[in-house]
Amino acid sequence: MTYSIYMPAKCFWGNGCVCENSSALDLGKNCLIVTGKNSAKLSGALGDAIEALKKEDVSYGIFDGIGENPLISACHKAGEAAREIGADFILGIGGGSVLDASKAIAIYASNSELSPIDIYKREYKNKALPVALIGTTAGTGSEVTAVAVLTNDETGIKKSISGPDCYAAVSFCDPKYTHSMSYKTTVSTALDAFAHAIEGFFTQKCDGPLRLFAEKCIPKLYSCLEILSQTDTVPDEIREKLYYASIYAGLVINTCGTAFPHPLGYVLTENYGVPHGMACAAFFAPFVDRCAEFAPEKFANFCKMTDEIGKVKAVISSLTDLGGAVIGKENAKKFALRWQSVIPRNFTASPGGLTMEEAEKILSEI
Ligand code: NAP
Ligand code: ZN
Fold first, then answer.
1. 351 — phi, psi (to 5°)?
2. Residue among 152, 163, 69, 148 nearest 115 (CA)
3. CB-ligand 1 contact for 135 (6 Å cutoff)
4. How far apart are CA 4 and CA 294, in angstroms?
5. CB 364: neighbour CB atoms within 10 A?
6. In what order do the strands lie in the sheet with 131-135?
7. How far is the CA of 230 from the centre of ligand 1 (A)?
8. Atom 27, ligand 1: which residue's CA is nearest?
9. CA distances for 155 relative to 109, 151, 218, 230, angstroms
10. Domain-by-domain residue ranges, the chain?
């Protein structure tokens, strides 16, 4: 077994870590703060960030136009805004959508010749601006991954960019900002973190220290999901566990990648507006069935860390709200065409692999 691990983002963890480590924001004299509509303010993270920037004598502008499943056009526009104010770095505050968008904005900002779609070519002249991130959801792990998932406005398709230029220079991981998340967003983001942990765990690359990260977060996430399945509010005491576990899960996928529930989940998000975590969780049962067949040793370990598989499936299914989405045979055929010429890495990384025909069948059962 050979693997390599590279994760150069400087991470600060813990309550109050933004203000206590304000000197880490000394990435220039001027920055563009990037947010969504409300969460940066609502969570208290924006207030703390402004205090920290003032302490370091860094001036700032704010771009608050990033929506869920960030559009390349919005990121491109924010890149222009960064150039207009002469930003030296980008400070993203929000859930995975804003954190991912910030990585793309940093690339657009320093490369004025790039059109929105050019970001997928992964070729540009100037180095991306440095990026600082403050997470407000406990899900994506974008704080520690070299990935940004963007949506192409023209096709409506979600497609990632990844590489060393997608790492944050610094990430602040303070679970207190996640307390303002609604029950539904908490559940969806927790399901996403769980999907990362198990999809990463079942890839062949997940061994050695990566397996330690996975084995650390799988039981934590599952115990929180079990609690969430029994209530419709979020107990305060699970917030910290969920957030840190989501970062461990991020460390797992950063090296191991995800498996087939992720690309299949994109179909539910793009066509039926299902939130990302719920969309991935919709494929939990067929995924673990294949793991049981093709990776029995890890599967036994997975059940030891969680519960009897029937019970685990019931917990995940009770939390997965697809808002009535029905795919069916005809749509599945159409959606699966995207994998006709290129089988994604996530399919080959899944135990037993996955063909386009198998993906179509799994989709048709939604
Ligand atoms: P999100 O799309 O960032 O946010 C979902 C909703 O939650 C938004 O309405 C947001 O509001 C709100 N919200 C966020 N934090 C909140 C808080 N503390 N309090 C109240 N509301 C809050 O959700 P996400 O699940 O974190 O990110 C999903 C995106 O990340 C998807 O595009 C997915 O594909 C991507 N992803 C990336 C990676 C990676 O490695 N980079 C991994 C997995 C998934 P506002 O609009 O007001 O901010
Ligand atoms: Zn995900």
1. -55, 130
2. 152
3. no
4. 24
5. 16
6. 10-13, 170-173, 131-135, 89-94, 30-35, 59-63
7. 24
8. 96
9. 24, 8, 35, 39
10. 10-177, 183-364
Structural class in CATH, domain 183-364 = mainly alpha
Expressed in angstroms and rounded, the spacing between residue 303 Cα and the centre of ligand 2 is 22
* Ligand 1 atom 45, closest CA: 36
Predicted local distance difference test score (pLDDT) of residue 1: 66
Mean pLDDT of the chain: 97
Please check whether the domain covering 10-177 is classified as CATH 3.40.50.1970: yes
Please list, in sequence order, all residues whose beta carbon lies within 8 angstroms of the beta carbon of residue 226, skipping any fewer than 6 positions away.
307, 315
Q: Could you tell which of 7, 99, 140, 246 is best to mutate to test the pocket of ligand 1, judged by most ligand atoms within 8 Å of the CB?
A: 140
Residue ranges in the chain modelled with pLDDT below 50: none
127 CB neighbour count, 10 Å cutoff: 11
Residue 94 β-bridge partners: 135
Binding site membership of 110 for ligand 1 (Cβ less than 6 Å): no
Q: How far is the C-alpha of 73 from the C-alpha of 243, rounded, in Å?
A: 30
* 3-state percent breakdown (helix, strand, coil) of the chain, nearest 5: 55, 10, 35
CB 306 within 8 A of CB 221: no
Residue whose token pair is 């206590």: 20
**Ligand 1, pocket-test mutation among 63, 179, 255, 276, most atoms within 8 A of CB:** 276
CB 58 within 8 A of CB 115: no
Integer CA distances (angstroms), 301 to 181, 215, 292, 296, in order: 32, 9, 11, 9
Residue 3 pLDDT? 76
